Amino acid sequence: MLGLWKTWKALEARGIMGINRRNADYVLKYNKRSLYPIVDDKIITKERAIAAGIHVPELYGVISTEKEIEKLDEIIGGHTDFVVKPAQGAGGDGIIVIADRFEGRYRTVSGKIISHEEIEHHVSSILTGLYSLGGHRDRALIEYRVIPDQIFKSISYEGVPDIRIIVLMGYPVMAMLRLPTRQSGGKANLHQGAIGVGVDLATGLTLRGTWLNNIIAKHPDTTNAVDGVQLPYWDGFMTLAAGCYELCGLGYIGVDMVLDQEKGPLILELNARPGLNIQIANDCGLTLRTHAVEARLEELKARGVTETVEERVAFVQEMFGHIPPVEG
Known about the structure:
This protein has about 325 residues and is α+β, with helices and mostly antiparallel strands. The protein contains ten helices and 13 strands.
């Protein structure tokens, strides 16, 4: 028992945040319960983002009742590829990604052929709350399928890689690239076997990777190195993430974004209870960074000023970025 206590004290000294501290000092402190629906429901998040001029995957349609399932064919229209997902789903569950049509049927990104009736049945399951938080009745949304930027081709297996940035009161504090693997079924979900790769806040260069809680240097499926990759539009991603504080009003969030090869950076969803594996990927504790931001907020409050999105991004990049930008 003494050994465990010493281990935990050593982790605390490194600023490693545990789930109890995350919940008590950040989620409960900075996130009003009344605002949770904004981030827990992907449709509400999307509508808020569109109203704020923030780019998101295009919404083709929403199905809210069993009766509306008959509108599915009309919603899909002439689209050969699209995504069906639960509005209140979590962890990537309940998402079907259609990549193409084949002989009157649909082909998923994994190559499985499914019928229109199977998609209708899946939508019906979504409506019953099979995939929703708490098992409550849900809505199904049909939206644009993101096509990952070519930069990810060598370090990702199927699916869509995404970028998670944790934001405290509008200040990005830590970032991670999540890469699908064969084991994760092409989903960018760490608990299902995706890779988490730390990202330097100042430059957008990838750091080391973590897979199933082990430190790795190469993608297990492509065998290519996951570190040292320069993510395009990095300042744009940082600005998008920082601006999500004004978008939803929640003070402690995870912002999930994707890089589409044609549309550029897009907001995918927001999370009011972001996981803590991001610390392993960055070999750095969240607490040291959150404390620095809280000290900054106290300083600004004493001076009676607030910072713009651009100023907040500049502050964290100077404070937490540890790799100098490449010149030339």
